[in-house]
Amino acid sequence: MEKINAVITGIGGYVPEDILTNEELSKIVDTNEEWILTRVGIKERHVLGKGLGTSYMGTRAVRQLLEKTKTDPMDIEVILCATTTPDYPFPTTASIIAHNTGMKNACTFDVQGACAGFLYALETGANYIRSGRYKKVVVVSGDKMTSITNYEDRSTCPLFGDACGAVLLEPTTEEIGLLDTFLRTDGIGFPNLHMAAGGSANPASHETVENRQHFVYQEGRVVFKYAVSYMADAAATIMGRNNLTKDDVAWFIPHQANWRIIDAVARRLDVPMEKVIVNIERYGNTSAGTIPICLWEWEKNLKKGDNLILAAFGAGFTWGALYLKWGYDGEKA
Ligand code: ACO
Q: 251-254 and 307-314 as β-strands: parallel, antiparallel, unpaired?
């Protein structure tokens, strides 16, 4: 029997219209354009309005995906949503998106892998396809990071924005698609990157709200150090065990947390910046949204057979890298 693999056959995306510039931020906290641009590389980020959750962006991204791939929502068998900012603790954001988009024949669940969530969800979705029992799987991935951003903390509030991407996975017997994955976790990261309240260990109370514990807490310097070394090691492992040199790689797509992290990882891998997809200056860190939004924006430039290396790092710490051989030419109209 021929080996079945999973390949991405389409991509949709959604970025909210409202923009928060560095200049506007500098009126909220003690910061400035020069610091944010040189230390992080962000010019502006998009912000989803009050009263709307991650499912709003996920629904828009999935609707576009279904249109572009001419797919009937009733044919989708699995929809999984990678997010750290679900609409509610329950039900899952995937179930809300499935309802909004008319997917009545799908199994739905959320995957929580922080900024590495897209890689975790993509590998999970691909395994449904590889099992041979499922033919159409949607992975929707993104975050409303501004809902957990503390606009009184200048060390974190310039970093985050909101966005969602969605991909369709289908079976193939060609040598394309998700060819290799390396995913890891190291719980050492907990003290350096977490949200202290709102979960079962420390449910919401007047005290947790007063102490501003419902926002991202980050020790930036520690996270920076681990992000560079773990992302570079993961990508190098994936490239090494697939005999890929920098010349074989068409595009390197790193998680967009900080331009300096991206630059340091690319240098360690010796991949020239012309091959590195970067859009952090316009969107900031949208957590599980960064890599699918890069793919969505670059779709028109991708060709069948292109070797893509994806790498991400986030809370946990969780991180990883993925080797993807792209499955089609240009943008699906
Ligand atoms: N504007 C102006 N000055 C600032 C600002 C600001 N917005 N923020 C901090 N500073 C100051 C600090 O007070 C400090 O001043 P001091 O030297 O007088 O004390 C100085 O700038 C340097 O501060 P650092 O925190 O050391 O700045 P650093 O260069 O480390 O940059 C940053 C901070 C951008 C957060 C960086 O550490 C980083 O990118 N870390 C990793 C982020 C990441 O990858 N996160 C993972 C994913 S996120 C997720 O999973 C949810």
A: parallel
Query: Which DSSP helix (H) or strand (E) runs through 164?
Result: strand 162-172
Q: What is the pLDDT of residues 179-192, one digit of tens each?
A: 999 999 999 999 99
In a shared domain, residues 313 and 236: yes
What would the pLDDT profile of 123-154 be if each residue is shown by its tens digit?
A: 999 999 999 999 999 999 999 999 999 999 99
Q: Same structural domain for residues 105 and 153?
A: yes
Name the nearest CA neighbour of 53 among 104, 77, 89: 89
Protein residues whose CB sits closer than 6 Å to any atom of ligand 1: 31, 35, 39-40, 114-115, 154-155, 158, 193, 216, 220-221, 223-224, 227, 257-258, 261, 285, 287, 314-315
Active site residue 214: no
pLDDT in tens, 104-130: 999 999 999 999 999 999 999 999 999
Q: Is pLDDT of 333 > 80?
A: no
Is there a single domain that holds both residue 152 and residue 202? no
Single out the residue of 122, 187, 220, 147 nearest to residue 317, CA to CA: 187
Ligand 1 center–CA 42 separation, angstroms: 13
Residue type at position 307: N
pLDDT beyond 90 at 332: no
Helix 259-269 and helix 220-241, axial crossing angle in degrees, nearest 10: 30
pLDDT in the model for residue 169: 98
- CATH number for the domain that contains residue 26: 3.40.47.10
Query: Residue 50: CB partners within 8 Å, gap ≥ 6?
Result: none
Domain encompassing residue 121: 5-175
Q: Are residues 15 and 155 in the same domain?
A: yes
Report the number of distinct structural domains present in the chain. Answer: 2
221 C-alpha to ligand 1 centroid (Å):
7
* 38: in domain: yes
**What's the mean pLDDT when you consider all of the chain?**
97
Q: Per the domain annotation, does 332 fall within a domain?
A: no
pLDDT tens per residue, range 316-327: 999 999 999 999
